[in-house]
Amino acid sequence: MKRSKIELLVLLIASSINASAQINASDSVQEHVKGNRLSLGGYGEVAYSRNFYSDNVYRYTRASQYKNDPSHGRFDIPHAVIYLGYDFGKGWTMGSEIEFEHTGSGSSMEIEYEESGEWETETEKGGEVELEQFWLQKRFAKWANIRLGHIVVPVGLNNSHHEPLNFFTIYRPEGENTILPSTWHDTGISFWGRYKDFKYEIQMLAGLDGFQFGRDRWVHDGANSPYEFKVANKYGFAARVDNYTIKGLRIGISGYYGRSMHNTFPHDLEGDNYSQQGEYLGQKTYSKVKGDVIIGSFDWTYQAHHWIFRGQADYGYLKNAAIISTVKYNRTSNNAPYEKSPVGKNAVSIGTEAGYDIFSQIAKLRNDQQKLYLFGRYEYYNSYIPASGQQPYEYTKRNVIAVGINYYPLPQIVIKADYENRMLKSQYNNEPSINIGIAYEGFFL
């Protein structure tokens, strides 16, 4: 049966998105708006999980008591995203991404000065609605572009390629999604471009907030702001380079550096260092604590001969981790929007996955652009590697295996199913689950 021109155009766009697992969301918007003044697209995911382990909050501290707890199930819409882009001409473009997470709307914290500085919040439903990207860009040449606004921070495989067609599992790969902000987005300025086989980007951003760091997610929440504005007392710098020299292979390195201490609101959380008589008593106790955050990441994607391989390795370092843990626990009020658990000096995440398209061996299905990947995934991560003198928490060390299928009836739609087992140290209970999901990504205009 012959296809209409519109159908062929849609398939061409969708195929270009699916075939390039190396294009992130902001690039997808930018590259598409070159062909049209207005661009509209997005992606979305629906998931169901049956977890065969306890969901009690004490399942790690009292593991033996919850070993035989019943399984529990969850429906979720992890992400529903709308892309909107516009080409103004003369090299000026706009890109935006509105994201609905878990079908909900977020909330903001406020400090009421007329009520003795009391913290207040209003929440009608869980989840978040976020403007994940909003930027204006000037293109000077293929190798030189400047982007200003709210942008994705491309540190790690997950952040630079976080759309659902770019990973096999139902949910985003667990390790990076735990220890790093995900999707990491912040306000700043970016210089990026492509020269021959290299693509590169350098960013200056608002810094991470050390008081949002914690044991179970390391710096994951550090890019968040519970306010109507983003605190930017300190700044961070991110960079990424990708190489495409070998056909089908993309190799990337990325990193981040910034200071996280004193990047809170109010700016001074130590209290005024004065005597009762008003005499100045000198420097504040923690004024020289910087809380430097250093993150390094290496990742790759190989797609050829009906195989897809992906992998990454991330390592993070937080200076003054023990001091930050003490200050945010002892020097902030109980109702302040800060994480109270200790944060480790280091965190690590290593993961790899491989999938083979078995429909590639069936001519009719191959010609119809249908795909069925059988895949396996392994990862290890630890969100809390303590500094000397900090209490250890062994349950943060986790090995995760997953096996499953990805079926593509069309290039822009995938139906997923997997079995996953999160394996902890012997004194804890493993956490197996079965997950089913469906997702899409494409442009409508």
What keywords describe this structure?
single chain, 445 residues, mainly beta, two-stranded antiparallel sheet, 6 helices, 19 strands, 11% helix, globular
Report low-confidence residues grouped into runs of 5 or more.
Answer: 1-26
What can be said about the biggest beta sheet?
A: 16 strands, antiparallel, barrel
The number of distinct helices, counting runs of at least 4 residues, comes to 6
Which bin fits the share of residues in helices? 10-25%
Strand order of the largest sheet: 1-3-4-7-8-9-10-11-12-13-14-15-16-17-18-19
Topology order in helix (H) and strand (E) letters: HHEEEEEEEEHHEEEEEEHEHEEEE
Could you explain how this protein is built, in words?
The chain is 11% helix and 45% strand. With 445 residues, it is mainly beta. The chain is globular and about 70 Å long.
Annotate the secondary structure layout:
Blueprint: H1 5-19, H2 25-33, E1 38-51, E2 72-76, E3 80-89, E4 92-101, E5 109-112, E6 118-121, E7 128-141, E8 144-152, H3 157-160, H4 174-179, E9 185-195, E10 198-206, E11 235-243, E12 249-259, E13 292-304, E14 307-318, H5 321-330, E15 346-357, H6 363-367, E16 371-385, E17 397-410, E18 413-423, E19 431-443
Antiparallel strand pairs: 1-2, 1-3, 1-19, 3-4, 4-7, 5-6, 7-8, 8-9, 9-10, 10-11, 11-12, 12-13, 13-14, 14-15, 15-16, 16-17, 17-18, 18-19
